[in-house]
Amino acid sequence: MELKGKRVLVVGMGKSGLAAARFLHGRGAVVTISDSRPATVLSAEIEAMLEAGVAVETGGHGLLTFRRQDLLVVSPGVPVDTPELQQTQAFGVPIIGEVELASQFLRGKVLGITGSNGKTTTTTLLGEILKHGGLAAQVGGNIGLPVVEMIDGITDDGWSVLELSSFQLETIDTFAPKIAVVLNITPDHLDRHGTFENYAAAKTRITENQTADDFLVLNAEDKPTQMVAAKTRAQIYWFSPRRPIKQGAFVHGESILFLPCEGGKAEPVMPVSEIPLVGVHNVENVLAAVCAARLAGVSAEKIREAVRAFKAVDHRLQFVAEINGVKYYNDSKATNVDATAKALAAFDGNVRLILGGKDKGSDYTLLADLLKSRVACVYTIGAAAEKIESQLNGMVPIQSAKTLDAAVQRASADASAGDVVLLAPACASFDQFTSYEHRGRTFVALVRAMEAK
């Protein structure tokens, strides 16, 4: 992709948009960045862009600004059905995302991970496994570094391990990972995608440019994920915690095995008991990582060593403290109903669950069975509280706490030794917090303050 002298508009001044603008300017493009938010909330970003030599438009998108470009690069946070983007597309201006832009320049091989839940844990774990196995590897994408900031960090024989969201995948064009992993597909971001079918289609795009020389790792126990198999030219490998599969990673008895090819001999990798992460869903994450790492050339022995040394990622079923016999877990990354369900399934009962935040078009009644069998009380917070209370009325005791601070205080006061206080909100964080990390850090700080008393 030749950028020198090209007029390029970056839409959205989020983390990846800012990174893309800096990269494009550094490659000689004439760059403008546009954001619909007012200048008053973007003062630091505006200053940084102007100092970098990038023109800035805020407070709305000007149609003429969009039409006077050779290329548009869209940030993940900007919906592709934004009117200005749709009109610009009609004029034939190419529109891509930051991942697609970076893929034109990224050397080495790409290992891409997507799914509704488990992406961050699996991506981080795979990065650790590849490094422990002696491979040059870097991790980024939807976590850590934007992909354009990874371009200078890898050589031709290295691996870029990328967490990829549906927002990032819906704006690819030629992007094709050597190994793609689809962990699961359950309803999420319906407020953005409109329908589950649209959301699933965005996830499926991870494999659309793969060839017969590439690999696709799929969850044999997740029906929507199974359907991706019909849409790929890549070699398919499966993972399952329940049964042997013909090619891939699976649990047999108390051990994880890897079968390199149909009709081949399964090789032992590690006992399930050595996985240091809580929950059945994390067994699935490890199986996916085992499969992808073996395909990347890491030995079973090195995989076992790396998994055993791995620690839970912050905000993903993270144990915080035990106070007076009550255990506190931070799963702020549980931003959809399925993630909350997986968190609840990790505990036998006596859970005091904090739910709420910004609703994403979710159906909270899907938690009914787990609430009845495992949850002593639900404490609602944030903008989604009224909807959650309405949908769960009569299923479980509910307290309207409004804020996270109040929810932690009430849950702590109600809890007895042996109980679990769990933050697994099933919602986005953007009503009361700047990110799920901000929400998780706040929860941890509240618990630490109680522990210090």
What does this structure look like?
With 453 residues, the chain is an alpha/beta fold. The chain folds into 3 domains: 7-93, Rossmann fold (3-Layer(aba) Sandwich); 100-309, Mur-like, catalytic domain (UDP-N-acetylmuramoyl-L-alanine:D-glutamate ligase, 3-Layer(aba) Sandwich), CATH 3.40.1190; 318-452, Alpha-Beta Complex (Protein-Tyrosine Phosphatase, Chain A). 34% of the residues lie in helices and 22% in strands. It is built from 17 helices and 20 strands. It has helices spanning 15-26, 43-51, 63-67, 83-90, 98-103, 119-132, 166-169, 190-193, 196-204, 223-226, 280-296, 300-309, 337-345, 368-374, 385-392, 404-414, 436-452, and strands spanning 7-11, 30-34, 55-57, 71-74, 95-97, 109-114, 137-141, 159-163, 179-182, 215-219, 235-240, 248-252, 255-259, 267-271, 318-323, 326-330, 351-356, 375-381, 398-402, 420-423. The strands form 3 sheets. The protein has a 9-stranded mixed β-sheet with strand order 7-8-6-9-10-11-12-13-14. Strands 15-16-20-17-18-19 form a 6-stranded mixed β-sheet, sandwiched between helices. A 5-stranded parallel β-sheet has the order 3-2-1-4-5. α6 (119-132) packs across α12 (300-309). The chain is globular, with a radius of gyration of 23 Å. The protein starts with 6 loop residues before the first strand and ends with a helix. The mean pLDDT is 95.
